[in-house]
Amino acid sequence: MFHCMLRISLCSPEPMLEAAFRALQADADFRHKVTFSAEAQSLSATDRAGEDIFFIDSTHLSVLPDLKKTAKPAARIVLIDTAGQEAALQESLVSLLDDIWPLPANPDVVALRVKGLLRDALLRKEHALLQHCLETTIDTTPDLIWFKDIRGEHLKVNQAFCRFVGKSKEDVIGRGHYYIWDIEPDEYAQSEYVCLETEEEVIARGVTCTFDESVKTKLGMRQFKTRKSPIFDEHDVIIGTVGIAYDMTDITKSSAEVEIILQNLPFAAMILDEENRIANANQKFLDFFRFENVKEILGSYRSKVRAIAIKDHHLKQVGDHLEIRSWKKGEEIILESYEKEIVDMFQNRIGKLVIYRDVTSERNSKQMLERSANTDELTGLYNRRYFYSQLPETVAVGSALLFVDLDDFKKVNDTFGHRAGDDALRLTARLLKKHFNEALTSRIGGDEFVLYLAKVHSVEQVVNRACRLQKAMKSLFTKNTPWQGLSASIGVVVTDTDDVGRDELVRRGDTAMYEAKRRGKNRVCQYQHKMEAPHDEPPSPLCAAPCAPCHQREVCRAKKQTAQMRK
């Protein structure tokens, strides 16, 4: 209980009564102050207005009317009857009194009655304080609050209730539903109002219930979310109900606005609550994830819906919830998901908006741009810029590079035109990819190609594959008139140290390729350091022989280098 003070004025010379009051023990929360004054008229108007209980005797009956006027409304006036004058009291005076005490001769009985008086005063104070606390609480609440008895009459309402019905508390108390809400029974019966029926349901079930109710108010039609509970007496008998109504009208309007926005978004979207359960989703979301309607997924955890989508709808999750792929009519569709937390006015997370944007066209355009920037338009091979960007700055031991140059390519262009030359380049690109599909292959110049192999099993193997490529190119060129004079000179370099840079690797391949041309073209040459020396003497007849002798010689060299690498 709150701290409070009980003020008592004892306007009587009775010694037993004074002794009983002086013997009272003060309580920590409920204290009392007794003023002893033989004459009530001696109390000032201020003292009278502050007192809670007055004890007077028959000598003060003449000032009783004035005392009643100046005392506060809740003050109690008790007459101490020492002469047995109760029966002779005028009715007008009796109506001004709150109690009459015949004073017993036993002081213990007097003390007992004084203690009982204090207990009664304490209960009255507690009741008044609780009433005040209840009034303050319900009037502070913006929701509508009301208490009804079992007949449906309103016993107490708050200010919010009065504002909605357009009536004062005094006008509402003791009145029923039809009067308060200004509605006739026939109108209520013909409408969709359910207020009275929900009251009956609460009383019948005997538990708290929640309802959605539409009510016609002075502020227009309103939509309420109401909670109604039965009130029980000390014998567990229902004696009434209490209701609390939260005005959902503006929120319902806001929800409708959100629904309109959600449904008109140009991409799939869903709203999650604070527990990551699906609260809403638009039609584009349902269409993409192939759900019939939103009721299928409302209240479901996001993870469950994702699992269903991946399992049943042939979706593929790529990355950390960022990308989803599906196939429609044989074409891949790519969605990227973006998430934004929804917070309330206090920055508390109350949900999340998840948007799925179709980036299929964007991805395809990006891939086309990247392909265009990285590849040679004519052959489809990587271009020089991309080749160098992918080549390590320093290549590892056992890396290989083939430098391929078409022999007498200019004659084809000059004799048969550039179209024949372009066809020869495209054919060469197909052969390179066929024989070295694992290689990083690039057209780095007019009729020059390079192939990089990050790791080879042996030098001999690379040379053998290069020779097979060279033979295949010559064989194919020979079968077609415009290209009969074409062949290929191929330089092969395999690193045996770990200090060779990418530019040096390409330079060595170029050197080996020119050595093949110097020896008569149409052959494979493996890079040797002695190739760096100036060539003053013409090549020997054996080295100038096309294809086979060159092949045998390079294979022998390859075997020696492979043996050295394995040591």
TrEMBL record:
PROSITE patterns per the UniProt record, alphabetical: GGDEF (PS50887), PAS (PS50112)
Q: Which domain of life is it from?
A: Bacteria
Domain GGDEF residues, every copy: 397-529
The record, for InterPro entries, names: Biofilm_reg_signaling, GGDEF_dom, Nucleotide_cyclase, PAS, PAS-like_dom_sf, PAS_fold, Rev_trsase/Diguanyl_cyclase
Q: Which CDD domains match?
A: GGDEF, PAS
The protein's name:
Diguanylate cyclase
Q: In this protein, which residues make up the domain named PAS? A: 130-175
GO process terms (BP): regulation of DNA-templated transcription
